Write the structure tokens for this entry.
Amino acid sequence: MAVRREEEMPEESPATLKEILYARELRTNCQRRLLAEFGRPLVSFTLNIAGGRKAFPLAERTFREGKWLIARELERAGIPVAVYREDCGRTGYAGFYAVDAGAERVKRLAAAIEESGPLGRLFDIDVLRRDGTKISREDIGLPERTCLICGKPALLCSRSAAHPVEEVVRKTQEIMRSCFQEQYAGRVAQSAVRAMLYEVAVTPKPGLVDREGNGAHRDMDIFTFFDSISALAPCFRRFVQEGLDFRGEPRKLLASCRYSGLLAEDAMFRATGGVNTHKGLIFSLGVLCAAMGYLHGNGLPEDMDAVLEACSEIAAPARGELEKAPKGPPTHGEKAYSECGFSGARGEAAKGFPHVKSIALPLLRSLRKAGLSPNDAGVAVLLHLISRVDDTNAVSRSGLATYRAVQSEVQKCLSETSEPKELLNLARGLNEKFISLNISPGGCADLLAVTFFLSFLFPGPQ
């Protein structure tokens, strides 16, 4: 997989001082026209970007974020916007809002946005009274803004050129990049947590923990899963960040993520009192989160096929480790591989999750499109996975012959019906049988969670 990194700053020549000053004059004239035409206080929104390069992808995204925050804050405060005008070009981005509210009140809202986080430091949200005079921060009892570099008054550093422009530009890009990476990591990690919650909530699940019982388990229930999922939430953000920060071939990313994986397992065991609820899923969703981060951080395509290809490359070393003799007591996965040739979570990830891509995800999408609830669609998907997947967890608990016999039974039932109610009854009946045989298809449950995860991030056909 070739690595490509898009530059935040364009190669085109920067705007000249003359162009910047002319653009500033045009924006001032626009403010005057809007004040005269609408007779209302005016919000003027621009970005604090040093140097001549004012327009580039990160800056445009920052401007869009600021626009959304301003619109949301005005809406929350019940302040109507009489008109909005925008001026965007190589000299920068500007938005103007004529609003129906007192200027001082609006300025307080604007200052709250500017103080809301690092990205807000790059927002310059002026509020003009009806007569065109500007309300300062001091007018509403706030201190003046501070310098990005040293923390001293920004106006003082700007007028004295206290810092090289290049340093200020680097700091500006760093703030933008960091903010949007955190947003991205949060969105992907949230999808991972949501997928885990959906998986455990799907009911009935043969032999597995669900809302009706503990399945074939005596050491865990649904609350044990909730405890584990809550503890793992920040861990998935860390996996995404590992991918965002990594530069190199994806097959080398797994080594970088190993320690984060161990920390995630520690968090799980602390939360559950030593019960293994999600060890396999930490690996599967961890690889997926790292793959998402890797593609995003390197400016590569982020469609589902690209993500699964990246997973395959990232997980390849783990698949190779199964060929080696374990250094300590073998895990369930290692034992299943040595005895049955089942490669488990490592094999699924190294192959790009073929059962999810070809069976589970298309089925989930079609059932949801047909109107089934996430629960009923999830039960159907799980049954299809049980019928097709070599589940190392199930085999380690019941033996290969027993599991193959159960798979054949599920395959036969699925060939006879696809009615949702009948599948729910089938799953409930199988639960009793799985409990009696001590079968818990945890690997299939993990793949159900992976299916939900991909459906959240890629809701349409890929």
Remarks:
- The first helix runs from residue 17 to 38.
- Strands lie at 42-47, 81-89, 92-99, 123-128.
- The radius of gyration is 28 Å.
- The chain has two domains: 17-142, 174-457.
